[in-house]
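@here heads up, posting the sequence + SMILES for the 2-acetamido-2-deoxy-beta-D-glucopyranose run so it's all in one place. Ping me if the SMILES looks off, I pulled it from an old spreadsheet.
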Amino acid sequence: MAVAIPGRSAPVQRTLFRCLKLLLLLIYFINYIGSAAAGNTPRHVTGEEGGNATLLCEFEARDDLDIALFRQSKKIIVCQNEECSERFVKKGACDVIIKGLRLSDARRYILRVNNADGQREVEREFHLHIQDEISVKTGEQLKMDVLLINADKVEKNSSGEWTEVWTRGHGVRVSSDRLNISDGNLTISNFTVSDTGTYRVLDSEGEILITVTVTLREDQIRNISGSSSGTKGKLDTDDTPDGTEAHTVASWIIVVSVIGALLLVLVISALIWKNRDTDQKVYQDVPTKDMNM
Ligand SMILES: *[C@@H]1O[C@H](CO)[C@@H](O)[C@H](O)[C@H]1NC(C)=O
Ligand SMILES: *[C@@H]1O[C@H](CO)[C@@H](O)[C@H](O)[C@H]1NC(C)=O
Ligand SMILES: *[C@@H]1O[C@H](CO)[C@@H](O)[C@H](O)[C@H]1NC(C)=O
Ligand SMILES: *[C@@H]1O[C@H](CO)[C@@H](O)[C@H](O)[C@H]1NC(C)=O
Ligand SMILES: *[C@@H]1O[C@H](CO)[C@@H](O)[C@H](O)[C@H]1NC(C)=O
Ligand SMILES: *[C@@H]1O[C@H](CO)[C@@H](O)[C@H](O)[C@H]1NC(C)=O
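bot reply: prediction finished. Complex structure tokens:
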């Protein structure tokens, strides 16, 4: 029995060393995936018209960080003091809050974070999507200020399908003399029930900038349907950015699967180890019986 002991300590050390190397490799891999997922993909942030949105930089909290926010390569002045009344305000180490959201805030943003020496620490891209709800009475005029400079297309969801209402270069795509561009706005005159639905505005890369839910005003819904069940579906007012949530979920999936992989590696190496041990014992204790098998 004692024969195995001097011979065993070297393989044990080697196995341990191999495990450690594997662990380091795994940690490096997680870091790599984590930073790739967090850093370079644009984050999607959704806000309600009139509400607030937060662009989370998700970087270590440090005092020496200097931030710059860009919209279409134009620098936006961000108030550095959380208490100030500007619409763009820095929060925490490098987050930016946009207050009193307007439809025209629906853009791509680049957030650059530099350290005190002016060296780039991180750069994040955000797609800000704005949601709005409008309720209109029949016969009224509906003006939608959605033809932003970066808008390429307006679509309407009718019977579960998206149909083009307006495209840049072609103008109004539907044959309706009630739908016009006036004053730079997409305008529907003499509003009817058929005009209700979801309108969305896309940029040239198909990214959704604005979603407007148009409903019939409530007192009219009652008169038409004869029921008083409020149909004004309030959208989720939670101003947690969608992209961040999805990102958190992704991080958790990575963490859980990596822990799972680690456990698997440990169990397998333990099994191999144990097997080698018992094999040695079997050979030493009952060599002849083993040979006969
Ligand atoms: C937006 O921020 C302002 C100032 O921080 C706050 O007073 C207001 O309640 C916020 N609005 C929403 C919808 O969270
Ligand atoms: C589009 O409309 C259909 C019914 O007309 C509805 O079920 C669906 O949820 C709508 N989709 C969106 C994104 O509004
Ligand atoms: C919309 O434009 C069409 C022609 O382009 C015109 O005939 C119609 O009167 C206009 N409607 C309104 C409400 O301006
Ligand atoms: C849409 O109309 C409003 C006035 O009703 C105006 O202030 C706004 O500038 C118009 N939008 C564009 C893109 O011209
Ligand atoms: C508005 O629509 C109603 C019904 O669709 C129609 O009777 C009326 O003449 C329209 N008014 C205008 C100004 O187009
Ligand atoms: C809807 O009903 C209310 C009373 O319930 C009435 O005052 C209003 O004029 C009606 N509206 C229409 C458009 O018929």
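MO: The mean pLDDT is 80.
MO: One more: Residues 157, 159-160, 198 surround 2-acetamido-2-deoxy-beta-D-glucopyranose (ligand 2) (CB under 6 Å).
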